């Protein structure tokens, strides 16, 4: 399920030679389209998300799963067309700006041979990967970095700026990849090549919509239920069984319960069970009692329980090093892959994850800061007290006033202060003098379209959270794992319709009477089992990963990460890592230690593989 294409804006002997060399490098790939300027190849002629359309000297290639194509077809009187044909129609009829209204996962590439121009678009969330390179009049685009490297148009050079970005932030903030001259089309971006000049600009920015004003909680719940049900059902594969992750938490239980209400849906409830853990760790990870509540309520669900025995994050790293062009940053990917492997044996093609509904729905804790900022002390104390009581924590008036009233006034923002504290800790990872003046500020600006002063506004906190690049990184990591198993992973909570709706909600629908994520719990009454709706805690699935990394001997970690011939020696502060190695082996500190070691270990293995 990979594609690659090349377009030469200059037709000459050099470009002809490049085309031949490029085609010869693609073993087991089929040519989907070829003319004197453009060639497109794929290793899966039957991939349902690929479509290509050429007419009037305009070529469109699409890798997409559009959920509202029917609406466009009705609006423009178009019948039974592919996604590529729809984009061709929009472009040819000067309606290309309508792309911002598309819903689903997509990347599109358009070549206008008459004007000698090219365009590329990514969806609003960044759920599909499109990499590209533009060199000497040749534009190469692909779902995979290594297919661009095979073209021979560029050398395999390390992008050290991206390396430093990973060491400090553990995520991709800009379009730069680990390889020089190969870039990624980030979310909501339009790429244009006009007069052989490439430019990149946003066509979509996530913004806070007008606040939704309804009469009462019932109307809010019904409105949420309507859109959430629509989103879930749109993501179900109606032609064959669909797998949905069932952890026992509120997010996954909500998705699977809504899907199971439609008896025509054939749903596989996929979950995992750890084998061989201590009794203490079993208590941390076991959610079977919550899962059983879902099975009882919806007996039509098919169980798919995957046992986690010999799998762990380090084994997954070693087994899949050759399958990933960049470091494997997601520490729990081994769990998702275990489920995907079981689904692959069943020939299941679609799997839904309840990925981070927490952030999309919002716990609503920013409401407390807002009440404190506006000096609504009575409401603040009442809400904070109810929240503490429901979570089983002690409440005091003094600590509440200090946290939500005094701190925000004493500093520009308590939240930003916390962010800066975390950043200072991350900066300890690198040698002094490595980070140049202005570099950090530039990177932080890429993390959100909001300025620092706007981020300190509690009304924008929900929006700022969803603008963070970590979600795009995580979704793409899951997509990569799914692609390796020929399974399409979908994340209903990150549907743009649901995101817009949740951003429009008043804070009182996110946190109310001490109940966080209030609107989700309220709207799922009689749909999700009561025991799960009343659940406020989350299960910890990290014990196996943490112990696997903690059990690596310090000498082995030093040997694998620090190597005089490795580029990492130039950047990493050995003294800092010696300290967290020691803390990890003696079980001191928090999860920052083992997660940091995992991220750097994953990087060192990747560096070694690429001989940098």
The percentage of residues in β strands lies in 15-25%
Strand order of the largest sheet: 2-3-1-9-8-10
The Cα radius of gyration reads: 25 Å
How is the biggest beta sheet arranged? 6 strands, antiparallel
| Mean pLDDT across all amino acids | 88
Q: Give the helix level as a range of percent.
A: 40-55%
Report the uncertain regions.
Answer: 411-416, 449-456
Structural shape = globular
Determine the structural class based on helices, strands and strand pairing.
Answer: alpha+beta
What order do the helices and strands come in, and which of them pair?
Blueprint (H helix, E strand, L loop, with lengths): L2 E6 L4 H12 L5 E5 L3 E5 L7 E6 L2 E9 L2 H7 L7 H10 L11 E9 L4 E6 L8 E5 L2 E5 L2 H5 L10 H10 L13 E2 L4 E6 L2 E6 L14 H19 L6 E4 L4 H12 L5 E8 L4 H7 L2 H10 L4 E7 L4 H8 L12 H13 L4 E3 L4 H5 L4 H8 L3 H14 L6 H14 L3 H14 L11 H8 L5 H4 L5 H7 L2 H15 L3 E3 L5 H8 L7 E2 L2 E2 L1 H6 L6 H4 L9 H8 L3 H8 L12 H12 L5 H19 L3
Parallel strand pairs: 13-14, 13-16, 14-15, 16-17
Antiparallel strand pairs: 1-3, 1-9, 2-3, 4-5, 5-6, 6-7, 7-11, 8-9, 8-10, 11-12, 18-19
Helix pairs in contact: 6-21, 11-20, 13-14, 13-15, 14-15
Report on this model:
By secondary structure, the protein is of the alpha+beta class. The protein contains 27 helices and 19 strands. The strands form 4 sheets. It has a 6-stranded antiparallel beta sheet with strand order 2-3-1-9-8-10. The chain has a 6-stranded antiparallel beta sheet with strand order 4-5-6-7-11-12, with helices on one face. The protein is globular and about 75 Å long. The two termini are 28 Å apart.
């Amino acid at each position: 399920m990979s594609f690659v294409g090349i377009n030469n804006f200059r037709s000459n002997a050099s470009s002809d030679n490049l085309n031949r060399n490029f085609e010869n490098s693609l073993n087991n790939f089929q040519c989907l389209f070829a003319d004197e300027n453009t060639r497109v190849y794929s290793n899966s002629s039957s991939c349902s998300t690929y479509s290509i359309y050429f007419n009037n000297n305009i070529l469109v290639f699409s890798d997409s799963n559009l959920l509202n194509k029917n609406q466009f077809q009705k609006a423009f009187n178009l019948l039974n067309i592919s996604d590529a044909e729809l984009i061709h129609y929009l472009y040819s009829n000067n309606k290309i700006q309508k792309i911002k209204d598309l819903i689903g996962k997509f990347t599109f590439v358009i070549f206008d041979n008459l004007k000698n121009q090219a365009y590329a678009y990514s969806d609003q969330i960044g759920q599909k990967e499109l990499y590209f390179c533009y060199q000497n009049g040749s534009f190469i685009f692909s779902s995979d970095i290594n297919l661009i490297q095979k073209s021979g148009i560029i050398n395999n050079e390390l992008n050290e700026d991206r390396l430093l970005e990973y060491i400090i932030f553990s995520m991709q903030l800009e379009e730069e990849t680990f390889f020089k001259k190969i870039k990624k089309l980030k979310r909501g971006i339009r790429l244009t090549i006009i007069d052989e000049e490439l430019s990149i600009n946003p066509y979509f920015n996530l913004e806070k919509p007008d606040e939704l004003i309804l009469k009462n909680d019932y109307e809010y719940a019904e409105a949420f239920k309507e859109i959430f049900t629509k989103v879930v059902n749109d993501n179900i594969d109606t032609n064959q069984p669909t797998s949905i992750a069932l952890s026992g938490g509120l997010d996954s239980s909500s998705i699977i319960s809504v899907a199971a209400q439609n008896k025509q849906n054939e749903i596989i409830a996929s979950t995992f069970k750890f084998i061989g853990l201590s009794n203490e760790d079993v208590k941390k990870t076991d959610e079977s009692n919550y899962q059983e509540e879902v099975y009882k309520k919806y007996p039509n669900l098919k169980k798919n329980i995957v046992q986690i025995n010999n799998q762990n994050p380090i084994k997954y790293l070693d087994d899949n090093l050759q399958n990933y062009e960049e470091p494997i940053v997601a520490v729990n990917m081994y769990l998702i892959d275990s489920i995907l492997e079981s689904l692959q044996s069943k020939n299941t093609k679609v799997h839904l994850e309840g990925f981070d509904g927490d952030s999309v729905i919002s716990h609503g804790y920013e409401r407390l800061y807002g009440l404190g900022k506006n000096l609504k002390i009575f409401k603040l104390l009442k809400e904070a007290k109810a929240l503490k009581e429901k979570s089983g924590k002690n409440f005091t008036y003094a600590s509440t006033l200090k946290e939500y009233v005094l701190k925000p006034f004493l500093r520009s923002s308590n939240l930003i202060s916390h962010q800066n504290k975390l950043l200072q800790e991350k900066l300890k990872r690198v040698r002094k003098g490595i980070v140049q003046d202005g570099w950090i500020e530039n990177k932080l600006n890429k993390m959100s379209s909001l300025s620092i002063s706007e981020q300190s506004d509690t009304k924008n906190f929900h929006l700022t959270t969803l603008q963070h690049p970590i979600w795009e990184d995580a979704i793409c990591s899951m997509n990569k794992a799914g692609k390796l198993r020929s399974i399409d992973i979908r994340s209903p909570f990150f549907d743009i319709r649901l995101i817009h709706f949740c951003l429009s909600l008043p804070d009182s629908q996110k946190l109310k009477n001490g109940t966080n994520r209030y609107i989700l719990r309220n709207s799922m009454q009689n749909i999700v089992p009561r025991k799960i709706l009343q659940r406020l805690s989350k299960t910890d699935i990290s014990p196996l990963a943490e112990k696997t990394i903690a059990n690596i001997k310090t000498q082995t970690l030093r040997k694998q990460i620090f190597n005089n011939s490795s580029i990492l020696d130039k950047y990493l502060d050995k003294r800092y890592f010696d300290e967290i190695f020691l803390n990890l082996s003696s079980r001191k500190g928090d999860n920052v230690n083992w997660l940091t070691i995992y991220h750097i270990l994953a990087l060192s293995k990747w560096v070694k593989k690429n001989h940098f």
